[in-house]
Amino acid sequence: MVNEGVYSNPGRRRKLPSFLGLALGQVPKDHPPTLADKLHLDPAALDHTVRRKFSHLLDSSYRPFPFADLPVELALPILSYATGCSQGTYRSLLLTNKGICDLVRSDEMLSGVSVILSTPRQLHAFKWYLETWPEAISQIHALWTICPFSSERETQASIPVSATITQMCTKIRSLACHPDVLYHLVDRSPFQHTRCVDLTIDSGIHWSAIMNSFHGAEFFHQIQRLHFLGAIFPYYDMGPALNNLTRMSMAMGLVTNIGSVKFGGVLKSPKLQQMVITTRLTGDEQEFLAEDVHKIDPRFSVLYRRRRWREPNLWHESFQDPDRFWNQATAEKHVLDPARKRPVRERNQRWGHPPSDTESDSVSDTPESDEGLDLANEEIWPGLDIYKNPTKLALALAGRRNPA
């Protein structure tokens, strides 16, 4: 039973817990005043802050950029480029004014907006959005559903949600997803994703299973650009010949044994023009890798994977400019990353092979920074014998030195 005296006596107030009091606006007496408090209590301070922040607007010589006066031929390309810059830029344009809001919400503008869902929470929220406003489905042409920093359990739990979203969006031209999402996509009838030509996959594919599914072969034979994000292990099959494949890229991480990867099938694709390998190797090891891949096929090029790279950003940029990544790979085909202070190794001294007696085991004097490291894509194949030594394995996974 509630003690009515506590609530009926106006002169007697119960003290709320600190977190609940802050939520209800009861700031403790010893709580320092915030800037909002000062501006609320001092109109002069508010006026000073506004004048300082927008002082350029008070200048009599200031003239805003006459965007509304631009010819339509100039205004529309500018807005089209701005809508595709990022989701944040697109949201800002929606809040600019009614005229610009109406323009960026048109079908022509929405076709250039990419949807990046990189967390399970975003996947569930977007699924609810599509179920609530199904009229938006036809405007989605680029979709990213890979959650790079999720645990294996979270990834597996989010695959049905990703598959549902992907199946709903039938006008996708560019898709980034987990391989299991593809199995859901191509193993059902009717097959409606006939416009997808750019595919990014989080890891390897079991080619025999997916090509023998109901629509697996039909789907992959329409793909023109194929990207593998997860590092490819040796002895992996890169797939069969694909009818319309023109460009293909794969991440090799710190793998050096490129000769054992099975490229025979995909290299027979009739329209294939370019194969790009992204690597973390530097100096001599990168040079050796480049020489090895050029012996396999002259269409290969090796591109150093910079630490500032973020796969969702690269994917988004490729949707804006499909040739940007490939042109960069062509320009840097014979430009190697500057060698750091690392041990000098001969060609036959690869991971998994014993070093010579004269080989130095020193490492870089300046340790590499881990800032910007995308752990979701850092997979290596250092040689079978490394797993017998936990210390070597830990050093290899940290990327600090090459295990001997």
UniProtKB/TrEMBL annotation:
Residues 336-349 have a biased composition (Basic and acidic residues). Residues 336-375 are annotated as: Disordered. Residues 358-375 have a biased composition (Acidic residues). This is Uncharacterized protein. It comes from Mycena alexandri.
